[in-house]
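Technical annex, item 7. During the second reporting period the consortium partners agreed on a shared format for inverse folding records so that results from different sites could be compared directly. Each record opens with the tokenized structure and is followed by the designed sequence. A conforming record, contributed by the partner at site C, is shown below for reference.
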């Protein structure tokens, strides 16, 4: 058996190795961990962050960053909620998707046409969108939606939660886009060397706008799911979600410098974060320590990525 070849292959998929290692670790420490109900719960919890992280993956591969996803999430949720109070589920969902796509497109246009660093642009839109959310709701939650809408967040099909089905559906779409379309090819090209991509005839500005639009759209989809699950839209929704999404992408092996990353890695990165939360809770580890543990795991992942 060629162990060197196997080890070399495993290094190409650090998130999968990390996922398996963490599962084995918690399986030994808690007899409640390796149960079907617990894993369904983990996937349900992870679905929100994973969907946002799939959009963040494309942004980071392109050499950008999107700090506004949490605020876009919140604004999409509360605008949708106000429409849902009128009783139209379809219109409410469409409005949420429109808000997310519009805010993402605004990010993309400013980054592409304004030639401003994505960090600064999305930091500004993060603050603006959060402020608009608070103004729109006056700081109060919006609650009470039709049962048909709540099914999106609480229902299941053949025992599989609807949010998990949506998560894997979006995963399949983003995987296909990243691997088999011009958008995917140009995303890697822009992140690898934007100047070379321009010289090769790639319409860099156009594709940047599309990438940020997709990030905003996926944030809105995640907002729809959580709002349906909680039967409430909170003005504080999405706080810190940008950091969770970035962490999942980094744990998945993507480089913040751009040009490197996979949606498969992001999925396992999100699962690592979810299993860490779940396992530490099962072990009754204080929340005061849990953030430190996740921080250490992220640092280790970054160190491994640098070695590769």
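Designed sequence (site C submission):
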């Amino acid at each position: 058996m060629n162990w060197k070849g196997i080890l070399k292959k495993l290094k190409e998929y650090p998130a999968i190795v990390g996922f398996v290692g963490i599962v084995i670790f918690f399986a030994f420490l808690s007899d409640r961990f390796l149960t079907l109900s617990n894993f369904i719960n983990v996937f349900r919890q992870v679905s929100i962050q994973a969907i946002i992280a799939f959009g963040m993956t494309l942004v980071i591969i392109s050499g950008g960053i999107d700090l506004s996803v949490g605020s876009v999430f919140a604004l999409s949720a509360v605008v949708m909620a106000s429409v849902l109070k009128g009783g139209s589920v379809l219109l409410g969902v469409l409005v949420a998707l429109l808000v997310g796509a519009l805010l993402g497109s605004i990010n993309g246009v400013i980054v592409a046409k304004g030639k401003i660093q994505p960090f600064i642009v999305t930091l500004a839109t993060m603050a603006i969108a959060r402020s608009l959310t608070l103004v729109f709701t006056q700081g109060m939650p919006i609650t009470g939606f039709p049962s048909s809408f709540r099914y999106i967040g609480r229902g299941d099909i053949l025992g599989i939660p609807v949010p998990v089905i949506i998560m894997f559906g979006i995963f399949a779409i983003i995987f296909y886009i990243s691997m088999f379309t011009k958008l995917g090819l140009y995303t890697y090209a822009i992140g690898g060397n934007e100047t070379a991509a321009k010289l090769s005839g790639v319409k860099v500005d156009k594709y940047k706008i599309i990438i940020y639009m997709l990030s905003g759209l996926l944030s809105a989809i995640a907002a729809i799911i959580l709002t349906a699950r909680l039967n409430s839209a909170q003005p504080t929704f999405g706080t810190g979600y940008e950091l969770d999404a970035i962490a999942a992408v980094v744990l998945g092996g993507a480089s913040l410098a751009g040009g490197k990353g996979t949606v498969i890695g992001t999925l396992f990165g999100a699962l690592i974060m979810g299993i860490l939360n779940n396992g530490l809770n099962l072990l009754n580890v204080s929340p005061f320590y849990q953030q430190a543990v996740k921080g250490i795991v992220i640092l280790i992942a970054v160190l491994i990525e640098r070695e590769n």
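Residues 43-239 form one domain. Residues 204-230 form the longest helix (27 residues). All partners now use this format for quarterly exchanges.
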